[in-house]
Amino acid sequence: MSSSSAVPNKKPVPLVPLLMAAVAVLALLGGVLYLNRPAPKTLASTASHEAKAYLTNLGLSDVNMQASENLVNQKVVEVLGNISNNGPRELKSIDVYCLFYGLDGREVHRERLRIVGGAGTPGSLKPGATKSFRMPFDSLPDGWNQALPKMVIAQITFVN
Question: Strand (E) positions, 4-89?
Fold first, then answer.
């Protein structure tokens, strides 16, 4: 009597389920890393306590955005509007940070500009007065979401 030992046939492990499992693990790992990424940088205002207290006296109106091309065929985005001084003090200058965001909600560009007291807007802003401003941007990144930037007061200088 001869006994033959039957060796079980080893079937090759199917690659498709293994690849799908690897992709799922990578996607899960990517999701965990994305959710645990550091919080976006917050904007530390350089405005003094006196300037921060005065913010409630400032008003923005008619803020809009337009795009055009300059003389060298470069796209220029402009933010236009008016700023009002509803408080009792005369303002020598006002600087703002303009924060532009991408489609994913992350900040993609930041620029500080003077809207009162600069070369384009000479003079102070007297109590009860309104002044128009124009802020041109010619270097916005392609990933920008095309929305108005968030404007944050960076500095207010008072006339003594």
Answer: 58-69, 75-85
Alpha carbons 90 and 158: distance in angstroms, whole number: 6
Cβ contact 87:54 at 8 Å: yes
Extents of the domains making up the chain: 49-158
Q: pTM of this prediction?
A: 0.68
Per-residue pLDDT band for 54 (boundaries 50, 70, 90) equals very high
Cβ contact 115:94 at 8 Å: yes
The answer to whether residues 121 and 103 touch, using CB atoms and an 8 Å cutoff, is no
Nearest to 80 by CA among 120, 133, 140: 133
Which numeric CATH code is attached to 49-158? Answer: 2.60.40
pLDDT value at residue 94: 94
Using the 8-state DSSP alphabet, how is residue 120 labeled? S
> CA 35, CA 40: separation in Å to the nearest integer?
12
For residues 92 and 54, is the Cβ–Cβ distance under 8 A?
A: no
